[in-house]
Design brief:
The chain has about 375 residues and is of the alpha/beta class. The protein has 2 domains: about 250 residues, TIM Barrel (Alpha-Beta Barrel), CATH 3.20.20; about 80 residues, Arc Repressor Mutant, subunit A (Orthogonal Bundle). The strands form 3 sheets. The protein has a 9-stranded mixed beta sheet with strand order 7-8-6-5-4-3-2-1-9, sandwiched between helices. Strands 10-11-12 form a 3-stranded antiparallel beta sheet, with no helix packed on it. Helix 6 packs parallel to helix 8 and helix 12 packs antiparallel against helix 13. The longest helix has 17 residues. The chain is globular, with a radius of gyration of 21 Å. About 35% of the residues are buried. Bound molecules: iron/sulfur cluster. The site of iron/sulfur cluster has 11 residues, from loops.
Length: about 375
């Protein structure tokens, strides 16, 4: 079964850390929406699998769309694919878009999961990140969604922000836990080029947090959330039982997905494809770049996605899909990491223990084949 991703690349305000593909040129929004419907028709045959399991509206800020526009996309998808078994339809939303009216209209759509980009429940930290909502607005948004009957809410939090240490993070976690949302994503801040934070770092007005603080904050999140009843199932993701993200989980398990919208990526099991990022170009006629994955790239992709998840790699699957020789190389490479506790080999699976997830990038890279 496949996933459909719809990328709404517009934001009213640009966050200080953000390097996603997004634009503040809202004048293009309606034309991009129309072009996305054209792209859905043009690309309907990209997926081999015509049964959709998940639909995900990401961005950018999809909550800039009226819920009627959201439903129109869902209707369109159901004309192109078998949507009778769709399990999860998620919309990412900015808390200050979640008004009473918006929620009432959203409840008339088939959306059953809302992902709120909250990042922090500390007003000063929110201002520092140039977020456009306050802590109070974030709390109100969650409660409003809960009161309306939405039973699958996920929130994003950011940690590792210079000047906002464990105390601030701990208070944000108190609030997140008290709200009782079903899913929490916690991302370590990375300073990306061409962001406001990058400029601040270069000007000496901000620094990246040191490794020790990163580790302490990571351990704090892990402890508080697992004690709070969340399963740490992927490097940055925690879920209550039965509430893992189905859409993202299928990416991590190699399922096909079709990405619609400027700059969105698609994958059909062998080809990865992405559209032009310029909005005027996307509106006037889409251009694509693509690559066909080699066996080595498939292997690297499997290593990367599976080791980020708590189940890790399936030894039998590696043998059948990638061959005994590759498996032998991988197991030889794993020995050192197993000896120092960065990896565990148990019951036919090779995985990173959750308390070592923070070091996952280095462990994963060691297995990459060139
Ligand atoms: S709302 Fe999201 S996509 Fe938009 S600028 Fe902020 S972080 Fe980036």
């Amino acid at each position: 079964m496949a996933g459909l991703y719809l990328h709404i690349p517009f934001c009213k305000r640009i966050c200080a850390y953000c390097d996603f593909y997004r634009s503040a040129e809202l004048k293009y929004l309606d034309s991009v929406v129309e072009a996305m419907h054209c792209e859905m028709d043009e690309q309907a045959n990209f997926l081999n699998d015509k049964i959709l399991k998940t639909i995900y509206f990401g961005g950018g800020t999809p909550s800039l769309l009226h819920p009627e526009q959201i439903e129109r996309f869902i209707d369109h998808a159901s004309r192109l694919y078998d949507c009778s078994g769709v399990e999860e339809i998620t919309i990412e939303a900015n808390p200050d878009d979640i008004t009473e009216e918006y929620v009432a209209a959203l409840r008339k759509t088939d959306v059953n999961r809302v992902s709120l980009g909250i990042q922090s429940f500390d007003d000063e930290e929110l201002r520092f990140m140039n977020r456009r909502h306050s802590a109070e607005e974030a709390i109100d948004a969650v409660k409003r969604l809960q009161d309306s009957g939405i039973e699958n809410i996920t929130i994003d939090l950011i940690f590792g922000v210079d000047g906002f240490g464990e105390e601030v993070l701990n208070r944000s976690l108190d609030t997140a836990l008290a709200l009782g949302v079903q899913h929490i994503s916690a991302y370590h801040l990375t300073i990306e080029p061409a962001t406001t934070f990058h400029r601040r770092v270069q000007a000496g007005r901000m620094k990246e947090v040191d490794e020790e603080l990163s580790e302490r904050e990571y351990a704090l999140i892990e402890k508080r959330l697992t004690e709070g009843g969340y399963e740490h199932y992927e490097v940055s993701n925690y879920a209550k039982a039965g509430f893992r993200s189905r859409h993202n989980s299928s990416y991590w398990h190699g399922a096909e997905y079709l990405g619609i919208g400027p700059g969105a990526h698609s994958f059909n099991g062998s080809v990865r494809r992405w559209s032009s990022q310029s909005l005027p170009q996307y509106i006037s006629g889409r251009e694509y770049e693509s690559e066909t994955l080699s066996q080595t790239e498939h292997f690297n992709e499997y290593v990367m996605t599976s080791l980020r998840c708590c189940e890790g790699m399936d030894i039998e699957l590696i043998k059948s899909r990638f061959g005994e020789e590759r498996l032998a190389r991988l197991l030889a490479e794993a020995k050192t990491q197993i000896a120092i506790g960065n990896l565990v080999l148990n019951d036919g699976r090779l995985y990173i223990p959750t308390e070592r997830f923070l070091t996952s990038d280095a462990v994963i890279e060691a297995f990459f084949e060139m």
